[in-house]
Amino acid sequence: MDDVNFIRDIKPELIAAQLTHIELDFLNNISCDEMISMLGKDVASDSLCQNVNKYVNWFNHLSHFVASAVLAPELGGARHITMEYYMDVAVSCFSVGNFNSAMSVLAGLSQSSITRLHKLREKLDKNKVEHLSTLERQMSPSENFKTYRTALKNAQKQHTCVIPFFTLLVKDIHTTCEIKKTKLEGTEMINFEKCWELAGHLNGFQKYQSGVCDLQSDGNIQEDILVAKILTEDGMMFSSYETEEPVTVNDKKRYKAFLEKAPKQRMESFY
Question: Average pLDDT in the 24-52 region?
Answer without folding.
Answer: 77
